[in-house]
Design goal:
Length: 400
Amino acid sequence: MSPDPLKTGLLLVGVRGAIATTVLHGLESLRSGQQALGLVTNTPQFSKVDWEDLACFRVTGWDIAGDCDRAAGELERAGVLPSDLVELCTSLRQRTEFTIAPGIPEPEDSGIADRASSDRLSLPLPELVEALRDDIRSWKREEGFRRMVVVHLATAERQHELPAGWSHPEADPIELLREAPDNLSRSVLYALAAILEGVPYINFTPAPGAAVPAVAGFAKRNGVPVLGNDGKTGETLIKTVLAPMFRDRGLSVMAWEGYNMLGNRDGAALSDPARRASKIANKDAVIHGILDNDQMHSGVTIDFVPSLHDWKTAMDFIHFQGFLGAKMQLQFTWQASDSALAAPLVLDLARIALLAQDRGEGGPVEAAAAFFKNPLEVRDHDFHRQMDRLRRWALPPKSD
């Protein structure tokens, strides 16, 4: 099949998950004329940017288990997806299900993965990357995708130490794969497959992905944009907006405690300390990066509360000191749908990645920092400054 000039593949790792399911239904809703709320790239400030047309996106990808209909039903019962939209998209979900490729589970998860995904664990790491590359080529051929972008939305991975050699940006990751341990981050495997196929890679999870120096350097040498890490959708977003206020007003923050509750499958996964560690580190680091106060006490707690389903809830307590040493407090509670917050950002990031590719940019796209808790190669966590960076990149001044 020749590539369709009107079809762009959105290849989602974890395509049967809540965020991916919301993306799938959201695109159909937008095609029917619904307002694109929550999409940064659709706001007036970016109206003159030549973004990829949202109507061109088609969803497929990888997963290790699950069912598209069941995921949609769960989101419908949780009040995230409207019932009429779920019914409207029945045939779309069925068509999508037929195109999904087996994902690559972590070795510890072989028992919960479907047979095809578990079978992939018998392959050496270099062959796993080749299998993913074959999937990408197959989608391009059979679905007629003109171009594609990979977005990593899988459940948070267990944290493992980076093997020797991967911390060097000039290292060849394909050679390193031959000696890498079997539990090497799956995000690295998906990133390498995408880069080798010339497809931009976005990591919306806390997994390392293209934050690994050898992977980032490989992407840069191959001229492929990579974006990440760890999507910033809720409590951490508020932190990166509020913390600069305290800094710029000269108020001393003595303590900042955050308590998070999440009830979906990601919440269940984060009840595992090995999966939770990188998420907590990313959520806590933004405060210290903005306030630069070694004396400040801070902490982040994440609990799994099944009854909340997709509605994550965060309660933050900020203890600060003002003029004449007066001690004051700010407390806030944030409750929102995890998937409804994340889905439009996935589309924003896909547009940014494709625009970067159009411009011939390779390696980490620093302009995307505002979307991540741990942005690649950007240490400034101030949300307003990050948005300025995006505006300057998306709308560069015209030369005389």
